[in-house]
Amino acid sequence: MNDIEIAQAAHLRPINEVAAKLGIGEDSLEHYGRYKAKLSYEFLNSLQDKPDGKLILVTAISPTPPGEGKTTTTIGLADALNRIGKKAVVCIREPSLGPCFGIKGGATGGGYAQVAPMEEINLHFTGDFHAIGVANNLLSALLDNHMYQGNALQLDPARITWHRAMDMNDRALRRITVGVGGGTNSVTRDDGFDITAASEVMAVFCLSRSLAELRERLGNIQVGYSTNPHKPVILARDLQAEGAMTALLKDAFKPNLVQTLEHTPAFVHGGPFANIAHGCNSAIATETSLKLADYVVTEAGFGADLGAEKFIDIKCRKIGLKPAAVVLVVTVRALKYHGGTDLKQLEQEDLVSLQAGISNMARHIENLQQHFGLNVTVAINHFVSDTDAEITLLKAEAERLGAKAIVSRHWAQGGAGAEELAQAVVASIQSSTGNFRMLYDDNLSLLEKIETIARKIYRADAVTAEPHVLAQLEQLNGQYGHFPVCIAKTQYSFSVDADLRGAPTGHVLPIREVRLSRGAEFVVAICGNIMTMPGLPRRPASERIGVTNEGQISGLS
User: What amino acid positions are annotated as catalytic residues?
Assistant: First the structure.
């Protein structure tokens, strides 16, 4: 069976039974049907003095077309921890509709390691993405209305930095003109859309730890510049927008509780991409999970050069998290692809390409160990085409680098197939020396932080930018130099060239654009040809999605 057939055949438990495993009573749940619920603010506030469990970060090698199964491994590991007698939950991001209908598909895991109800989570879920997009676009509407109604703040239409947002891949909306026709159609100006996962409201939503902090951060969002020399920067609070934006997000901000196919409690909340945003689920869901379980398994988007780096240098820095261990997900197929094997030949044994592709895994292991001080366990996500010789080579190379490698069969066997991985991760935590650290200090300049990531994580020789971008960085550095940086670049390579596989060195990181996320409190460096509004592929996944006469969704993966 495929993923959706497995999910639809599963027998789920009522969400109140899943919640009871964590000591969450019926009065603390706000139901969205039988299998989904949000936690009440009263319950969330009652957890403040409880001790934290151990945080396990799941990341991966650089993504490839064959896929690595990072979310599947995250879910399978949480199931396995419960099977070996540990109290564990899984804490992951919400899927975006863009990838669901584009090229990647959904983000609820696969095989027998999934969160459910799969179709509902992958599509509208509890409406969180809708609320985030509407809050974003309310600010846009207030901004344009302010200029139409006399522009008391003297906003400069040519220097508006705020974009609209929509949770769909639509390249036609990257650059648009609004207010065409003048008159009652408002001020004509250039604008654009970002996908909701890349919006600053999403980042603010995911980095806030309370409603009060959410409102404060929303008010701090910079929307543009004015022609008034006495008030050159205009914020959302200048438009009195933060109260209404918070009202739109009030219910969405409560963490969502669902379950795995093995009934492990799962918090699925927030959903920034890691290639164009900071790539982590919400802070409030992570912190809640740590109060309720001994082990929390979470993931960071895409490869460790993006997701893990941002998880540590942005999320951990902002809210004081310390992962106890990290799992690096690999597949033999993906490593052979990094070593040069053609997509059509991946199921054939190829030790030469595997050996070459292991350089990508090695780079990620070295980064996680040397720059972040983390114990690394390699999870070999098993495929039936993997040969004994390939597995032996891969395990030997991982262990040569100081990382124990475990073959995991969670896709086919669920938690039972990941018990050895769970045992290895627990042992890794118990043997940890506690050397976790950030990649860079707050007191470095913004450019120095970008250069540090480029040099140490990507192994680039240089960072380049046009003079106006360097000038903008220098200007931002005066007030916001203490902010971390969020690099937006392709997820497929350590470089900005998606076709450069393996572990390239000697390349250049070109900064095309810099954006201040004042409310989220980081600076985004957009590099190469990465877009904050993706486009659909030639054959979108939406072409195979449908609904039966009985109302059952088909074709969703």
Answer: 70, 72, 93, 104, 274, 302, 383, 411
